[in-house]
Amino acid sequence: MPRPLVLSNGRLYLAYDAHYQLRDLTWPHVGYPNHVNGERARFGVWCEGQLAWTDAPEWTVAMAYEPGCLVGVTTLTHHGWQIRLTITEAVDPDQPVHVRRIVAEDLAGRGRTIRVFLHAYLEIGQSDVGNTAFYWAAHDAIVNYRGEHAFLFGGRTESGGISQYSMGIAKFQGLEGTWRDADDGELGMNPIAQGSVDFTARYDLDLAHGPATLWTWMHAAHHIDDLLPAPPASEMGVVIERARSSGHQCLATSEPKGFASLPESWRNLYQRSLLIMQANCDHGGAILAANDSDIMASNRAHYSYCWPRDGARIAEVMDQSGRPETARAFLLFARHLVRPHRQFFLQKYRPDGCVGASWHPWVHLGQPVVPFQEDETALTLSLLRSHFDHTRDQLMLEDVWQHFGRGAAQAMLAHRDGRGMPLPSWDLWEERYDVHAFTTASVIRALEDAAHLAAHLGDDFAPALTEAAHTMRVGFDATFLDAERGVYLRRPGDTTVDASVLAALLHLETDLTQTAAHATYQMVVERLSIPTAIGGLARYENDYYHRASEWYTGNPWVISTLWAAQTEIRLGHLDQAQQRLDWCVHRTTSTHLLAEQFHPETGAPSASRRSPGRTRSL
Prior knowledge:
By secondary structure, this protein is of the alpha+beta class. The protein has two domains: 5-247, Distorted Sandwich (Beta-galactosidase, Chain A, domain 5), CATH 2.70.98.10; 263-586, Glycosyltransferase (Alpha/alpha barrel). Helices cover 31% and strands 22% of the residues. The two termini are 16 Å apart.
């Protein structure tokens, strides 16, 4: 399940859970390091002698975005107290600054005073060792720092700033943290703590004369002396306005031909998807697969990594939607990931370019192997061609071809068997080490694209690439076509029906009306459609990952359903394709986000605590 509310500027990234608890805070890269690191920052209100954090059942939490931008709007309603808080917030497009405008209302009209408690437990730099939190009296703010990462938290009400504060030890020797100090509505005023620490700040709001407003400010820097204290409320509002303008600007050039004629629900999902994808793009070029830390509860790992496969597909979409700078940055990032002795990508990378954690072994059946997924290299090489076709950026092409493209093409030529077909690598689901239809399709296209670029650059390597691609195209049917059943297989001898075979045929631009391709489409739809009111298509038969019930072959996945829709568009079955697109729209959250997969009976998003075996952004 994705975080329902995400804010980002390519450096500072924040994500809230459904209870309006801040669960992810990364800086100076999107995705790394995560300074919340699987913990949480709480939001609470004291009223009528009681404190309620927003994860309490008395709260109703409604989250949304303002149209066309990454400005979040969250409404917190406590029905027992008849208190409502409306929070409008954004990250500055250019600075590591986060601003919130919190408007509190007394719906009962009894003119009460409430106390807002803002808590945070940060593991700065992904560590609970050697952190410091202190109240900086000169700026009426709280500073939390460790090493090269420092954060300042301040705020302003109509009558002043922080009313009370407390710094303390948390998550150590049985101590829960200063958020427990707020239980009686008062804070202990401890001004500093070091080690594994948290902090809580209190702001008082008087609702006697109508709604009251609290502005909060967070700034990140590399040294405490570079931190910026909260400015007047009027200046904080400029941050939200800049975020609005930035989002509207981003979408102004992204409307494809015929966009206005599409259903409004499709247009909204398209625009929100572009903004969320951009939010997960780091300023250094990496495109992150998933920036949420829920899996850390069970595996002490996360998915804030750049998979080149995911990055290449998203970059291609950004090119097509009028954001070529995103694809360019990704290609320049990718060129630094290869090495002279290994001119292809490993599984995944941190946004700073370091190799990411992996579950793929460096030995297979007792023999040493380099664990990689060849489609990741292939799709990035194809992106180089499509990006050049969009931009005609000759200098960028020459640079990336020299440092990545040519070597990647050579690596793919070297990774072939005696028939000229690819040797084994890990599949796109990251579960099987073998020769796969989707991987082979991506390599064929990459070799064809590389041949085109080589010819354009006058590189005599082009004929060898053209010949290799032709050999693979001819060998594709011999390798993956089940002659007895007349359908394509995901790998030789494996009759498990897999939706990724449709993706392979789409990628090869196969004539989908030809007998075997059409029979494969029909087989995928027949065998993978979920026979419940929820509908959708599973990834493949008997998919083990988060399988909700043995009664169904798997859970419905968005990506499998959309591959079927793409196929139907190519076949001219537009009514069926429209139904699948409507299915996706219907599955979105209030903030227009889609989970990866859903429960086949309830339609609830499947929690994303995955073990090895999938990607997020195909």
